Amino acid sequence: MLTDTQIAVGVHYIVHLDEHDLGDFASCDGLGVEVVLESREEGGNNGFVWQFPTRLKYPNIKLTRPVSKDTADKIVNWVVSAVSGSSRGTGHIEVRSADNEPVAKYDLHDVIPVRWTGPALNADQPKVLMETLEIAHHGFVKTSSKY
């Protein structure tokens, strides 16, 4: 188990969306939040401009991994079911270390698929075939998780 002073090297990401287990991913880009600011200039005050927070903005998250049998069984089925009328769900991205110990967990509110990109198929250039799943969400869910 990692202590508070250790860092995770060689991590992978396990993704769950309500009852859908989407499996392991090799990379996860876009976890974050931006505070949108509104600027107000005050007459007679030339020293600074007032900055007021207005809303939170969450970027889309891109998850990438090598193609596997999970692609059709889990990813494509979830994308199709999400688009065909099922409600948005809660998502969980769990960071795991190389020895599969949990490091951190991010709970996401109102997750919906944005894009799935399959591998570029080219017999002249053999390489690992990668897929990318892009999801949108409406923020983080507060939890009492120990990680």
TrEMBL record:
Pfam families: Phage_T4_gp19. Signal peptide: none annotated. It comes from the Bacteria. InterPro entries: CHP02241, Phage_T4_Gp19. GO terms for molecular function: structural molecule activity. This is Phage tail protein. It comes from Agromyces bauzanensis.
